[in-house]
Design goal:
The complex is a heterodimer of chains A (about 270) and B (about 260).
Chain A: H1 2-8, H2 32-51, H3 63-76, H4 78-110, H5 112-125, H6 134-141, H7 145-169, H8 173-181, H9 186-223, H10 229-238, H11 242-270
Helix pairs in contact in A: 3-11, 4-5, 4-7, 4-9, 4-10, 6-7, 7-9, 8-9, 9-10, 9-11, 10-11
Chain B: E1 2-12, E2 15-25, E3 30-34, H1 41-48, E4 56-62, E5 73-76, H2 88-93, H3 103-116, H4 132-144, E6 150-154, H5 162-179, E7 182-186, H6 190-196, E8 199-203, E9 210-215, H7 226-251
Parallel strand pairs in B: 3-7, 3-8, 5-6, 6-7
Antiparallel strand pairs in B: 1-2, 1-4, 8-9
The chains are: A mainly alpha (about 270), B alpha/beta (about 260).
Chain lengths: ~270, ~260
């Protein structure tokens, strides 16, 4: 039928029109040059604002002033004294909290009993701001390092436990059945299948727990410590030494960046299979 | 070595999926299991290899496996089930690691399995770098490395495109015939069943029962000829008429969740 109709009306070609391109866009590209320029411009503006006296240097010290204060702290050893104490607290608290969190998360992922007991506990205790426990921990553990480290450990424990649990819970059953079909012992299944498969989630948990540890170390040191970045910030604020205060903030920001970069390297080394 | 599966009944909670399914696989025999979707084919395979426990029934092995056999009943999975963080060679070595083998024997088995699946030059690649067909070759190599007596294959080609499927099926067949391995091959694809199987077990829809067992006398290497093709096509028609109605009603089923 269609052939017949074609035969009836030959010649006259149907009008043609070009389709309008409607794709494109929504493709973010990295623009490193602009990023650095904007950053530099912001710094320059800031420097100008204080340099020309538009803003009082006590309220907002200039970048150069902060750099000067930073240099002074670094040379006098004051920076290192405070930083090293903070690092020690973060390190020990993070290690303890992470180890316990890993153990509980793994247990909750593997055993129905620990999941039944642990899950409600973890979900009800996780939302407590851990710094609120510091006075209680001081009561329990006395003044000194222990309550600060314990606060950090408590803050790190929960995100690690939850990340480990969800990572273990999400391990594809097919991989576990495959291992069982080759008669792998349970210990090997955990070590060779479950933990590596849960590693991406565990490392994502570390990213959260590292920033939690930073937050808690500063808060705990502000509440009761002689040394440490938090105590240093508080003292500088009380003396209206805003350039030293800002230098301390810069140190914290660099510390956060550094730890994040370190974790990035760990992820790169262990997760290149993704 | 003979594998005997006797399932009286298998149920997931209230839902009976298999009823009175018995089948025996003799040494070197290739048995295909076909049936409408949801008829319990995969369940049957799980039971056969000891991965699922039948509600009522048992699985028996008669006779001894070869001396170098480390895992008589070995699966090849539909989704390949490779460990994505391990290289090809380390995936293939995976089922050997908990056995007491000296390093040389281990390396020899891995090299041999890689060689026979054409993966030798990809030993260090990661699964994500391979195509679907190559990934399933890794799955096959991992099965060969334990020198199985019976291969249990759950739709091993259904995650692959049609061309890869065709190529890999011929490789499967070569391997099975050359090594004289027995196999249970679960599929919904008639062409695969007709190409590979010595015997085709047709299951009914849920609860799966054995509807018919079809023996194919024609040896596999002779199934490529014109006359053989016609004969197999006829057989395929018959198989299709056996399950067409059930397949259509199974497909229209709404899950009761």
């Amino acid at each position: 039928m269609s052939e017949a109709r074609l035969a009836e009306k030959p010649a006259e070609p149907a009008p043609r029109r070009e389709i309008v391109f409607r794709g494109g866009g929504f493709l973010p590209r990295p623009r490193p040059l602009q990023a650095w320029l904007a950053f530099a411009a912001l710094l320059a503006l800031w420097q100008a604002a204080t340099g020309f006296g538009w803003v009082d240097a006590v309220f907002l010290p200039s970048p150069l002033g902060i750099g000067h204060a930073f240099w002074g702290l670094a040379v006098s050893g004051e920076l290192w004294r405070n930083l090293s104490i903070s690092l020690l607290r973060i390190g020990s608290g993070w290690l303890i909290g992470s180890a316990l969190g890993l153990i509980l998360g793994l247990a909750m992922g593997l055993s129905s009993l620990s999941r039944a007991i642990g899950m409600p506990l973890v979900s009800s205790l996780y939302p407590i701001p851990k710094i609120a426990l510091l006075p209680l921990l001081i009561l329990w553990l006395g003044i000194g390092e222990a309550p600060k480290v314990a606060t950090i450990a408590a803050g790190v424990f929960f995100p690690t436990a939850i990340a480990t649990f969800s990572g273990v819970d999400a391990v594809p059953r097919s991989l576990i059945r495959m291992s069982q079909s080759f008669d792998l012992p349970v210990r090997s299944i955990i070590w060779k299948v479950i933990l590596p498969a849960a590693l991406p989630s565990i490392l994502a948990g570390f990213r959260i727990s590292i920033s939690t540890a930073l937050l808690l170390v500063v808060s705990a040191e502000m509440i009761g410590a002689q040394f440490g970045i938090g105590a240093f910030l508080l003292a500088a604020g009380n003396l209206m030494q805003s350039d030293r205060l800002m230098a301390g903030v810069v140190v914290l920001s660099l510390l956060g960046l550094g730890l994040g970069a370190l974790l990035g390297l760990v992820e790169k080394a262990f997760l290149k299979w993704r | 070595m003979e594998l005997i599966v006797e399932v009286k009944r298998h149920a997931y909670e209230q839902l009976t999926v298999l009823e009175d399914v018995s089948l025996a696989v003799r040494a070197g025999e290739i048995v295909a299991v076909i049936g409408p979707s949801g008829c319990g084919k995969s369940t049957l395979l799980g039971i056969a290899g000891g991965i699922l426990k039948p509600s009522e029934g048992r699985v028996l092995l008669a006779g001894a496996a070869a001396a170098d056999c480390l895992n008589p009943l070995t699966y090849i999975f539909q989704d390949f089930a490779l460990l994505p963080w391990r290289s090809v060679a380390r995936n293939v070595a995976f089922p050997l690691e908990h056995h007491r083998l000296d390093a040389a024997e281990r390396a020899r088995r891995v090299a041999d399995a890689l060689q026979r699946t054409g993966l030798a030059e990809f030993a260090d690649a990661l699964p994500k770098q391979l195509s679907g067909g190559m990934r399933q070759r890794v799955g096959i190599a991992r099965a060969l490395v334990v020198r199985p007596a019976v291969l249990l294959m759950d739709e091993p080609l259904s995650a692959l495109d049609a061309q890869t499927r065709e190529l890999l099926m011929e490789d499967f067949l070569d391997l099975l015939l050359r090594e004289r391995m027995a196999a249970i091959y679960v599929t919904h694809n008639f062409a695969e069943a007709l190409r590979l199987a010595d015997r085709i077990v047709v299951l009914s829809r849920r609860p799966g029962r054995i509807k018919e067992v079809v023996d194919i006398a024609l040896p596999q290497p002779e199934r490529r000829g014109k006359a053989a093709q016609a004969e197999l096509a006829e057989l395929g028609e018959r198989l299709w008429s056996l399950i067409r109605d059930e397949a259509s009603s199974a497909e229209r089923e709404v899950a009761s969740v």
